[in-house]
Specification:
The chain is of the alpha+beta class. The chain is built from 3 helices and 7 strands. Strands 1, 2, 3, 4, 5, 6 and 7 form a 7-stranded mixed β-sheet that branches. Bound molecules: tetrahydrodeoxyuridine.
Length: 159
């Protein structure tokens, strides 16, 4: 038996430590929580993506009485961006969540399905996506999906 060790390093930033573009993206994700339709979980999630051409797309979680039919904020934003700008790499993705009026202190990590989709978008454009997970206590930053999804299934695994 051999050990297969996986280590991930992420960084926590104060909002004031982020560059202006990242700060704006986080603010856009916070604003996007207002578009959440979450009558079941009452958990409002917003996401914002920045494309290479500078355009920002936002999304929010959309729920449905048939639970699996809903969609997370991250995929709502990513799919909208990819559908309207199919040639534009996604450079960054910010996520924010609140319960009622209060943003969570600890950032929420994207669910497994969203991580897989982020991974697919990175592969599609051969460009890592800077992921900014907002919490009122700090912004957790992952340089690409790899630290959040180190052993992932991708296109190349089928060849
Ligand atoms: N949700 C997101 O939108 N993004 C995440 O990263 C985690 C969870 C949504 C899905 C559902 O509407 C609600 O939060 C509770 O799971």
């Amino acid at each position: 038996m051999r050990e297969y060790k996986i280590e991930s390093t992420l960084h926590i930033y104060e909002m004031s430590e982020l560059c202006a573009a990242d700060r704006e993206l986080v603010e856009a994700a916070k604003q996007a929580t207002r578009g959440s339709y979450s009558p079941y979980s009452k958990f409002c999630v917003g996401a914002a993506v920045r494309l290479q051409n500078g355009v920002v797309f936002t999304g929010a979680n959309q729920e449905n009485a048939a639970f699996p039919s809903g969609l997370c904020a991250e995929r709502t934003a990513l799919f909208a961006a990819n559908a309207q700008y199919p040639d534009q790499p996604v450079l960054a993705l910010a996520v924010a969540a609140r319960k009622g009026r209060r943003y969570l202190v600890q950032p929420i990590p994207p669910c497994g399905a969203c991580r897989q989709v982020i991974s697919g978008v990175e592969d599609r454009f051969a460009t890592p996506i800077r992921i900014l997970l907002y919490g009122s206590g700090g912004v957790l930053v992952s340089e690409g999906i790899s630290p959040l999804l180190p052993l992932r299934f991708a296109d190349g695994d089928m060849r």
